[in-house]
Design brief:
Layout (H helix, E strand, L loop, with lengths): L1 H6 L2 H23 L6 H20 L3 H10 L5 H5 L1 E5 L9 H4 L26 H10 L2 E5 L10 H9 L5 E5 L1 H14 L7 E5 L4 E6 L6 H8 L11 E5 L6 H8 L13 H5 L8 H9 L20 E5 L7 H4 L10 H25 L2 E6 L16 H7 L21 H14 L6 E3 L2 H5 L5 E3 L3 E5 L4 H15 L11
Parallel strand pairs: 3-6, 3-7, 7-8, 8-9
Antiparallel strand pairs: 1-2, 4-5, 5-6, 10-11
Bound molecules: 2-acetamido-2-deoxy-beta-D-glucopyranose (2 copies).
Length: 487
């Protein structure tokens, strides 16, 4: 009971009010049409009504515009990001956690006990780990404005990506992997799965439609594509830490005093976190070389519009001397040198994406950093008042000791600023910045393993809200308007 009272902040009341208005409009529609309809029909009706209003509104009928925009105000990116973590209305339990997060029977539930000693790897049945999975999963990101969020669904995501030539792609390191995990965790099921995951040792991961599945034809029809499209992925995750090729890095660093061309370094550095190749550009171009054939859907006989091929990039944690330089000379590297290399890599990615955008319909983002919190083990109190205070934080620094440093985490905001400034100065660049900081900086309590890993987040939790935001942003920019349909 008290958990509800504590959660009833202003934003919560606003959401209840919005829900009540929505419900009233449904009741009203059901009543005016005097149908004995089930909820699905009412929703379809409501959607059709809304579409009529939308088409009238373009004819300048102001009354309808007002009505429509009230019901249909989708959060702008800045409204979405100006939010807070609130307790979910429904308590998350071991029984409902998969349903709450739209996870399949295979979806990954992962978080480590708060007091776990270093070097200990407990089994998956550790009760303390399960307790923490539940503790960190109780919250939801809620915009403070009265605006609607497009809600992630595997079905609508598949429709969107199938309508594009290159599908939807994510490039980056283990932080990108967390968003990828949220995606596969809600798409891949045990047994005969509609979606199939392929993973290669080259760290190329993709999700395709299983054309033999009983639902496959229905999906092709809902998307308005031919089954031929199933030959290529819906989604790709290309795991790369620096996003560029070795030559690009060498070119960026050459000329610096103390720079040592990265050849024949210690095998640990060579085979560990840096690879002397980047594949996303070549792989993406090969997907974009195929046309997508769009066909009328049986539902409305309409041919959907081709969607943007979506790609987003992130990089940051691996820009460290020990990874970029041979071990012997890593100590000589300065932060300026690292930033110089980072800038050159960002330039390269922007240039190449912009070149691709000349001939293809693409939507591309540079995903900003997610916050890592030094000394995150101090955030162990699951007191909701404490979390409300964290909702106001803008820096990742330790509350107890704001001067303490962790790895290169202080540079994350510097990297982000650099990309933002660059994009502001290059309006012709086919790249936008996607800010992930507000959603992540406010959850210092939910890092994967608070004794040793204050960089990654527990799953499900923050990564799922990042995915929701990514999806919301995609739909805002989408060509078609059927991404909120109930599958
Ligand atoms: C960018 O494009 C150039 C020219 O096509 C290519 O040589 C280079 O490998 C690409 N770089 C990346 C990071 O994809
Ligand atoms: C957060 O900041 C707002 C405005 O700056 C303030 O009104 C509110 O009391 C703060 N909340 C907490 C829990 O500190």
């Amino acid at each position: 009971m008290s958990r509800y009272h504590r959660a009833r902040t202003r934003a919560f009341y606003w959401r209840m009010a919005a829900l009540a208005m929505f419900t009233l409009s449904l009741v009203h529609l059901g009543w005016t049409h005097q149908d004995k309809v089930d909820l699905d029909n009412v929703l379809l009706e409501w959607k059709a009504q809304r579409m009529r209003l939308t088409s009238w509104s373009t004819g300048g009928r102001n009354k309808q515009v007002a009505l429509d925009s009230k019901d249909e105000h989708w959060c702008t990116p800045s409204e979405y990001l100006e939010g807070e973590w609130l307790l979910r209305e429904e308590e998350v339990t071991l029984e409902n956690i998969r349903a709450v997060f739209k996870y399949t029977d295979l979806g990954l539930l992962k978080c480590r006990a708060a007091d776990e000693p270093r070097g200990v790897e407990p089994g998956p049945d550790d009760p303390a780990a399960w307790a923490r999975i539940l503790e960190t999963a109780q919250y939801k990101w809620v915009p403070k404005s009265v605006c609607k969020q497009h809600s992630w669904s595997k079905w609508n995501f598949a429709k969107y990506c199938l309508r594009s030539k290159g599908g939807c792609s994510l490039v980056g390191d283990s932080l990108a992997d967390q968003i990828y995990t949220a995606i596969w965790s809600s798409m891949i099921t045990k047994g005969d799965s509609l979606f199939k995951l392929h993973a290669s040792t080259e760290r190329i991961f993709d999700i395709t439609v299983n054309a033999n599945h009983p639902m496959a034809q229905m999906l092709a029809d809902a998307a308005g594509v031919t089954v031929e499209r199933f030959n290529r992925p819906i989604f790709n995750f290309w795991r790369e830490h620096h996003l560029v090729n070795r030559e690009d890095l060498d070119a960026a660093f050459v000329g610096f005093e103390g720079y040592e061309k990265w050849v024949g370094g210690p095998s640990m550095a060579e085979s560990g976190w840096i690879w002397d190749r980047s594949r996303w550009y070549e792989l993406w171009n090969s997907l974009l070389a195929h046309a997508v054939e769009l066909v009328p859907r049986s539902l409305d006989k309409r041919v959907p519009l081709e969607e943007n091929s979506v790609i987003s990039f992130s990089s940051g944690p691996h820009w460290t001397p020990v990874e970029l330089w041979p071990k012997e000379s890593a100590g000589k590297v300065t932060p300026e040198q690292i930033l110089h290399g980072y800038t050159a890599a960002v330039d390269r990615v922007i240039q190449n994406v912009t070149a691709v955008a000349q001939d293809n319909k693409v939507l591309t983002w540079w995903r900003g950093s997610t916050a890592a919190h030094p000394q995150c083990s101090q955030y162990t109190k699951r007191d909701f008042g404490l979390l409300l205070a964290e909702n106001n934080r803008t820096t990742h620094h330790s509350t107890l000791n704001p001067t303490v440093k962790g790895f290169n985490w202080d540079y994350f905001t510097v990297y982000d600023k650099l990309v933002v400034n660059k994009l502001e100065g290059e309006p012709e660049a086919a790249m936008r910045f996607m800010d992930l900081w507000p959603i992540s900086v406010t959850r210092p309590d939910s890092h994967l393993k608070s004794t040793t890993d204050c960089l990654h987040f527990c799953s499900p939790g923050v990564p799922n809200e990042l995915l929701e935001y990514l999806w919301h942003s995609m739909v805002l920019e989408g060509e078609n308007d059927d991404y909120d349909d109930f599958p």
